[in-house]
Amino acid sequence: MKRILLPAASLALALAAFPAAAKGDAENGKALFYTCTGCHGIEDYKNAYPTYRVPKVGGQNEAYLVAALNAYKKGERKHPTMQAQAESFSDQEIADIAAYLSSVKNEK
């Protein structure tokens, strides 16, 4: 019995050391995403220079969206506009945007 309890207790303590990820509010995320529609809301929008198609973000995995926005925020992903946008968001706002985008389909 002790063999089972010790690993379980160790795992519980390890998990307690990490703060829980913020739960996103999709309604607030929808309001926050409004600014993003200038690029991500235009069908087949292509950036002028350098030329690339703006990616779809609606329907993406929530955890991926949080990770991507945090990477822009920290400067780990390079795109000046996305970095500026991400830096303006709190962790909760990033979670909200990710919750909204992961809940929609056929959005850009």
Describe the secondary-structure layout:
Blueprint: H1 2-16, H2 26-33, H3 37-40, E1 46-47, E2 52-53, H4 62-74, H5 80-87, H6 91-103
Antiparallel strand pairs: 1-2
Number of helices: 6
User: Into which percentage range does the β-strand content fall?
Assistant: under 5%
Q: List the uncertain runs.
A: 13-19
What distance lies between the first and last C-alpha atoms, to the nearest angstrom?
53 Å
Secondary-structure element series: HHHEEHHH
Strand order of the largest sheet: 1-2
Helix/strand structural class: mainly alpha
CATH class membership: Mainly Alpha
Mean pLDDT: 83
Oligomerization state: single chain
Overall spatial form: globular
| Rg over CA atoms | 18 Å
Name of the CATH architecture: Orthogonal Bundle
How is the CATH topology named?
Cytochrome Bc1 Complex, Chain D, domain 2
Q: Give the domain tally.
A: 1
CATH homology superfamily name: Cytochrome c-like domain
Number of strands: 2
How would you characterize the largest beta sheet?
A: 2 strands, antiparallel
| Residues in helices, as a percent range | 55-70%
